[in-house]
UniProtKB/TrEMBL annotation, chain A:
Function: The pyruvate dehydrogenase complex catalyzes the overall conversion of pyruvate to acetyl-CoA and CO2. The pyruvate dehydrogenase complex catalyzes the overall conversion of pyruvate to acetyl-CoA and CO(2). It contains multiple copies of three enzymatic components: pyruvate dehydrogenase (E1), dihydrolipoamide acetyltransferase (E2) and lipoamide dehydrogenase (E3).
Alphabetical list of Pfam families matching this protein: Biotin_lipoyl, Transket_pyr, Transketolase_C
Polar residues composition bias: residue spans: 92-101
CDD domains per UniProt: lipoyl_domain, TPP_PYR_E1-PDHc-beta_like
NCBIfam families: PRK09212.1, PRK11892.1
SMART domains for this protein: Transket_pyr
InterPro entries associated with the record: 2-oxoA_DH_lipoyl-BS, Biotin_lipoyl, PDHB_mito-type, Single_hybrid_motif, THDP-binding, Transketo_C/PFOR_II, Transketolase-like_Pyr-bd, Transketolase_C
Complex and partners: Heterodimer of an alpha and a beta chain.
Name assigned to this protein: Pyruvate dehydrogenase E1 component subunit beta
Ranges of residues in domain Lipoyl-binding: 2-78
Catalytic activity reported: N(6)-[(R)-lipoyl]-L-lysyl-[protein] + pyruvate + H(+) = N(6)-[(R)-S(8)-acetyldihydrolipoyl]-L-lysyl-[protein] + CO2
UniProtKB/TrEMBL annotation, chain B:
Organism: Skermanella aerolata
Quaternary data: Heterodimer of an alpha and a beta chain.
Enzyme Commission number, as recorded: 1.2.4.1
A GO molecular-function annotation: pyruvate dehydrogenase (acetyl-transferring) activity
Residues of the Dehydrogenase E1 component domain: 28-324
Top-level EC class as recorded in UniProt: oxidoreductase
Cofactor entry: thiamine diphosphate
Function: The pyruvate dehydrogenase complex catalyzes the overall conversion of pyruvate to acetyl-CoA and CO(2). It contains multiple copies of three enzymatic components: pyruvate dehydrogenase (E1), dihydrolipoamide acetyltransferase (E2) and lipoamide dehydrogenase (E3).
Protein name: Pyruvate dehydrogenase E1 component subunit alpha
Coiled coil: none
Amino acid sequence: MPIEILMPALSPTMTEGKLAKWVKQEGDDVKSGDILAEIETDKATMEVEAVDEGKLGKILIAEGTEGVAVNTPIALLVGEDEDADKLETPEVQDNTTQSAALQKVKGEEETKPTLPVEPPKGTKAAPPASDEDKYFDKTVKLTVREALRDAMAEEMRRDDKVFVMGEEVAEYQGAYKVTQGLLQEFGERRVIDTPITEHGFAGLGVGAAFHGLKPVVEFMTFNFAMQAIDHIINSAAKTLYMSGGQMGCPIVFRGPNGAASRVAAQHSQEYSSWYAHVPGLKVVAPYSASDAKGLLKSAIRDPNPVVFLEHEILYGHSFDVPEDPEFIVPIGRAKIMRAGKDVTITAFSFMVGQALAAAERLAEQGIEAEVINLRTIRPLDTETIVNSVKKTNRLVSVEEGWPFAGIGAEMSALMMEQAFDYLDAPVYRVHGADVPMPYAANLEKLALPQPEDIEKAVKAVLYRS
Amino acid sequence: MATSRRRKPQADETPQYSTEQLLKYYREMLLIRRFEEKAGQMYGMGLIGGFCHLYIGQEAVVVGMQNALIPGDSIITSYRDHGHMLATDMDPKGVMAELTGRSGGYSKGKGGSMHMFSREKKFFGGHGIVAAQVPIGTGLAFGHKYTQDGNINVCYLGDGAINQGQVYESFNMAALWKLPVVYVIENNKYAMGTSQHRASAGELCERGSAYGIPGHVVDGMSVLAVKEASEKAVAHAREGSGPVILEMKTYRYRGHSMSDPAKYRTKEEVTKMRTEMDPIDNLKKLILENGSADEDALKTIDRDIKNIVAEAADFATQSPEPDPAELWTDILIEA
Ligand SMILES: Cc1ncc(C[n+]2csc(CCOP(=O)(O)OP(=O)(O)O)c2C)c(N)n1
Ligand SMILES: [Mg+2]
């Protein structure tokens, strides 16, 4: 059987081309890899190489022919014992099974498979169950800093695969002292000072996670994780999908996020919406010490990459934390910090404190605000938010970051999609000023949401002044 | 500094290769060659889409290197990855079916030519971001050391990738922590259309010298030279002496990807490499000259390989496209 040589597509967009020149002639011997012909495409002249061996039996398309469609037979290759003279020119319609396969692929573009419009487990899924409340019988006062350290220490005791790496995490005990004491307890094998090399150690952490370890990678602050964002997104978040489910990446990227105090634009950015944009990542942003501890433990145990956004100002704040090391907070579950019937306020991280302060002032004026601490940004606990708005009919979203495509924008979309009929006022977004963070004390304060801003927003959605 | 130039091995230290070994290398290189030619053809027929980077010409590098490894050693490379997968004994059917974007592919059709993995074969991809595999490979080596499993990582990168900052971040950490990793620079002279000399100052094999990482230049067109250099580098990494850099001088015959007309080099240059330096032809000559096997034995291998590749192509065209429901799977692992 002679083998048909077909007009190849030499680029993803080529549909036809000119057969510029036959390099081999009828009767020539052909080996795999030999150049048979030259073809001109819309962009360039390219060579066609032989894949099969044999003799060039018959040239079907003469050189100089223009507009030769991709997959048209252009020549016939015959085996050593075949007679080239007896070859019939095949009908162009009489395509090989291979070009038929192509036509099938092409044809499918028209009859697109019907896709499920929404993922099987849509955004309406209920948050995971939690027994966290039962642990609050016996508590100790801990700072967020201590709670984070305890979470790491407990998980490191539990699983030798857990290790901590980052700049100044070991000898120096952490740039913000979050890793205090870990080196002393776990040694330098598991508590590793890295060079100042964010891109490198983020990628190294991903490799270690692919190997089966459970790295906790500390960024001194998330501002510096921009150097590493390629590995967080392209390597950590996407590889499970790109590998058809083979390559889990159990890693935690953690560190302070957002504005500390008076460190200006390059050291004061809030990244939650950046990471929350990415399928394949979980994004956590705790407020209290108990949430910090319970959620970091969940993050370390999670088989997926988790971006764990802390807040420098909260590190020194104290909260009641359950004593029991079994206490854990599941990722994906918001917490109602204060119940109220008049308006729902969502906030996360440091802004929860601002929202609670605003709610306090509002209560004095007879307005009962329900404050929801999101705790997890992705997957978002939409059920808790929507149920609250069904009761209050109003939503104020608070975040420290910029408004454009921010968490508040997501909240607005959520209300449109899932609570439109319950709203009595448009969603109000309270957010950081849409400017690089200024240094001057007065300007910085103006750039960050204050309790008064939240108070004003609540009154706006209640149509009060 | 342990950076060394290519050195002719002395007669008494030239390793002896058994017929079995020579035929194995021949067979493995030929499988890659024929597989890639088939992939090129199927691309031409529209069965493979997107970017498709062929490994033709560079076969000796991965075959020589892989034959110096032991089970459990991990491998990672860039998007020019088909050869590496075949050399780690991944199933040609699964690789080809991934190229065609079918459910039978290694990534169920969701990764494509540039993103394939096999945990079973310790092949960790397949990475589309130039040089991203370098810190990841270094992290795999970190894992080998942390778990003391006795294995090493081999991290392949291109002559273009070598200029990325993250490569040096990795070199530094690998040297500092004495990680068991061999960095194999596949210097095929070009990064897309940019020749090495237009992009890289200095010698690539010396890029680790500031970190005290030994670097060696290897004739990447000779599978035996690669095997020999690899044995030494692998031993160095495995015994805990830290990373090694091997700069393999090689050449890709085809364009950077399928749509590259390769205007940046002359036809003569390509022809000269193909006719004088071809790793498969040269090994074949050696096998025939030293009487390890005759033409018939090699023909049998050729036929065998042809069948394997034909079967892979058939499988890859017949395997169904992924179920639409696959769109939503493998985003997160259920905790
Ligand atoms: C970070 C990044 N920049 C640019 C590209 C586009 N790109 C893909 S391959 C390539 C050339 C790389 O050449 P080299 O490292 O020599 O590898 P080779 O293709 O020769 O195997 C470029 C620039 C990319 N994929 N990633
Ligand atoms: Mg190159």
